[in-house]
Amino acid sequence: MSRVLNFSAGPSAIPLAVLERAQAEFTNYHGLGFSIMEVSHRGKVFEELHNNAIAKLKSFYNIGDDYAVLFLQGGATLQFAQIPMNIYTGGVAEYVNTGVWTQKAIKEAKIQNINYKVIASSEDTKFDHIPNFNFSDDADYGYICSNNTIYGTQYATLPSPKCPLVVDSSSDLLSREIDFKAHNIGLFYGGAQKNAGPAGITIVIVKKDLAARVKDSVPTPLRYTTQIEANSLANTPPTFGIYMFDLVLDWIKDQGGLNAINAVNEQKAAALYELIDNSDFYKAFAKPGSRSLMNVSFATPSAELDGAFVKLAEQNGMIGLKGHRILGGLRASIYNAVTQQSVQTLCEFMKEFQRTHG
Amino acid sequence: MSRVLNFSAGPSAIPLAVLERAQAEFTNYHGLGFSIMEVSHRGKVFEELHNNAIAKLKSFYNIGDDYAVLFLQGGATLQFAQIPMNIYTGGVAEYVNTGVWTQKAIKEAKIQNINYKVIASSEDTKFDHIPNFNFSDDADYGYICSNNTIYGTQYATLPSPKCPLVVDSSSDLLSREIDFKAHNIGLFYGGAQKNAGPAGITIVIVKKDLAARVKDSVPTPLRYTTQIEANSLANTPPTFGIYMFDLVLDWIKDQGGLNAINAVNEQKAAALYELIDNSDFYKAFAKPGSRSLMNVSFATPSAELDGAFVKLAEQNGMIGLKGHRILGGLRASIYNAVTQQSVQTLCEFMKEFQRTHG
Question: Fewer CB within 10 Å, N side or C side of chain A?
């Protein structure tokens, strides 16, 4: 079988060019006689790759040396605990609840026994939009999830609080430019497995002065400062994941950078939302103004038809279209690696499905 | 350049057959049209692979359903903190200090503010041997590191205490059979990056009744019970690492299993130690009786000659032979994936180096 069209929510599609490059040098990196997986993270070869990846990411987000880029493990899930452990200082931590992933973050804040406050939520409408809110100027930090994979909602623009902003960007990492200064970002993080490579590497961009808040009672491996001081090499990092992440960064550059990527993402999403909105068959879940460019959650008129849609799509070489079990329905995840051509093929399939099943 | 002979301490050599199989299906797993990296950890395809890997590992170690096999992240380093967090119950935790990795584990026990005791240490002779000791019957747990990468020491046999035994097996994982019942093993773990695949996956085998000791105040992602209940899928696991680990398990089976692997490891180590012991030029660091089958730490008569050795070895296609910065000298890491032929080539090089530089 040739390659399928992959609309999975995560782990998800990786650019074919990236996969093919990794495949070509899988047993012999740069002709050096070893796989990049097989050598020390402290050796020259890996260290150069590692530092280049950091430099490229800092350049994409236009951030300076007041920020540290860390390649960690444990996913967003571990960050939910690490964040209050590291940057809570005894004031109030403010959270905006936009779905399962912020709920999990709030749960860990509670377990950490900190003074946290949920200042806004869209739970009463099943998280179909991003609520309005203002973080307190003097909060220890304000916490948001910029894209909510399950519901298909996304902040059109990030807030710009006076307190440090913490952003879980797991599912829209590297999908658009972000002005870290304008939004007063203190901590910006995400698992790689949606837009940035394979699962098992967590990208954390943290302001060094924020990381310095940590207390000595925090376990050494869970302090950002431990990894800042060691350039993420305090212990063996997920070297192959970092290598793949670096290839993805090169690929983004080849596409013209984050603005060019974002323009394509807008076109892909617009094609799907227009088709859905102009149809009396499909219905989008997320409210206009809060709609994600990464995950389009929608449904046919019935669960039965949703099931038939998923099955027929698979027969036509399109996978990953089943909605999350919490929401049901359908979902097309159209991360950076999903091409406009793939989205076009999906749109044609959707029209044909409506014609034959509507 | 063809493939080098790789004596790196970790990340380290992976069997070429494993690399080549992963390479062949890198963009198209089992002809399904996607990379194994690109699909959901909750989908049928990955789930089957994941469960097969668990079953194979349980079969190698001959363990039953009283143990859970978890694929975690964060390396041994995170385990140093997770272990006291999860299984300390207010008694005394006993540690045996055999080098840097147990020192780090002890440091985290201290940060966790538990009642711990270092009951034996070989620090006064720079960790050149495994000390004698007996764990208290009623200790919360007894902690050892079964192989000490830096110094090249290894427990010839594991202790068999009455208290639950915790084993950091990061650098001799899957190198020999272990009788979990005889040694009363409660927790057995290791990063994959030496004997079991790429960095970024931590194999944890934990007795379920031990894991059940955890308190509600422990962060959810750091509880073993969280991952036991979710079959390691509480959050996205390092899917590609698990895939590679599974291929390594198949490769071990192809070699005849752990006993066959161990027999080869004994021959490889014997060849090196005999050459060293019969020479008046090379000197082994570890004392007989405590010598590692995984890492042979040795030295020439001078730091200058050590440097010349490393350089000339590299020119002859052998990498990773520089000793750890703490110990200096030389080190040949001869994990499962290093062939007898590679060790033979190294032995010949060593004889020739002695002839020309001795």
Answer: N
